[in-house]
Amino acid sequence: MEKLIYLDNAATTKTAPEVVEAMLPYFSEYYGNPSSIYTFAAKNKEVETQQREKIAQILGAKTNEIYFTAGGTEADNWALKATAEAYEKKGKHIITTKIEHHAILHTCQYLEGRGFEVTCLDVDEYGLVNPEELERAIRPDTILISVMFANNEIGTIEPIKEIGEIASRHGVLFHTDAVQAFGQVPINVDEFHIDMLSASGHKLNGPKGIGFLYIRKGVKIRSFIHGGAQERKRRAGTENVPGIVGLGTAARRAAETMKERAEKESTLRDYLIERVLDEIPYTRLNGHPQKRLPNNANFSFEFIEGESMLIRLDMAGVCASSGSACTSGSLDPSHVLLAIGLPHEKAHGSLRLTLGEETTKEELDYVVDQLKVIVKELRDMSPLYEDFVKQKNKMKHVH
Ligand code: PLP
What we know:
Elements: E1 5-6, H1 17-23, H2 25-28, H3 39-59, E2 66-69, H4 72-87, E3 93-97, H5 102-112, E4 117-121, H6 131-137, E5 142-146, H7 160-169, E6 173-177, E7 196-200, E8 211-215, H8 230-233, H9 241-279, E9 283-285, E10 296-301, H10 306-315, E11 318-319, H11 335-339, H12 344-348, E12 350-354, H13 361-380, H14 383-398
Parallel strand pairs: 1-11, 3-4, 3-5, 5-6, 6-7
Antiparallel strand pairs: 2-8, 7-8, 9-10, 10-12
Helix pairs in contact: 1-9, 3-9, 4-5, 9-13, 10-13
Bound molecules: pyridoxal-5'-phosphate.
Pyridoxal-5'-phosphate binds at residues 71-73, 76, 101, 103, 148, 152, 177, 179-180, 200, 211, 324.
């Protein structure tokens, strides 16, 4: 096989072999519909409950507070739309941030079209939400606060505990999109005062097309998908049993290995950041230097188009991203990078490298060596860089 260095683990991860192994029997051996009465199928109901239990334990939640969905996007849609509907008599104001995933932002736009008012909070240069500002934005008609646990592009981890405390003090529901954080950093729903939390299987070495929404008992959230009585009548549809087993297995595995993985990945990440910033001039790190996911590095290279860099990296066998996978393909600069104050040119020249459990130092060395060449060659072709160098030389002669 040709060289492949996968540094796009925020987009998706490799399904771990033991996860696949755990799922396999549920395709052709134990394929019964969990809603059927006979033992062969009804056993799958138990299997499902066991997975729910595993996930609940990791979050410090109760088993029946975990609802399976078809992924993070569905969980986000559900949390926002169903809360809006259930609480609209109390008020129609929602607070979120400018750096959320489109699963949140586009859902908010949809709700705005239905008479809800959305306050989108600014973030600072590192992508952090200011809890005081958030508190000031709360109004008597605020029904929901939705702030992501960690950002998918720049990796910044938000002050979730403080935000949760504020929400709880004001009696406002608090949802967090933890799609990037669940399995990477410890989360306890009680400690952080979280009422709803979205997560997704394929970001933690689990399968695609499965995720969950945690809904705290007592939250008046309506059914999202109508039909059968699955998921306590709140999300109809025959359960994706192999997916649920895969998600549960991946979640437990991620929880068990979290500490050592975080240590290993953050050490490698810091090594990568140091080498890139030291060896490639006119480069900056995006996101918070410390409060960031252990596997995320995001850089802006001046005078460069992110897309050209991605193509060149691809030719060198390196999988990377220039923003979130969902926005690549569009020419708009990333809304996250603009929100942290980057001008359009710098936002365009961004590169996200997200490490995985199999990433090695040798791979990172290869990537940095390639990047040095690619950045130099692309800059040599850039008229902007040429002007910059001319200007710099002129200044040198003046001094
Ligand atoms: N939220 C965040 C922060 C994400 O990073 C993603 C995926 O990239 C999603 C939501 C959507 O999750 P899914 O791909 O499971 O629908």
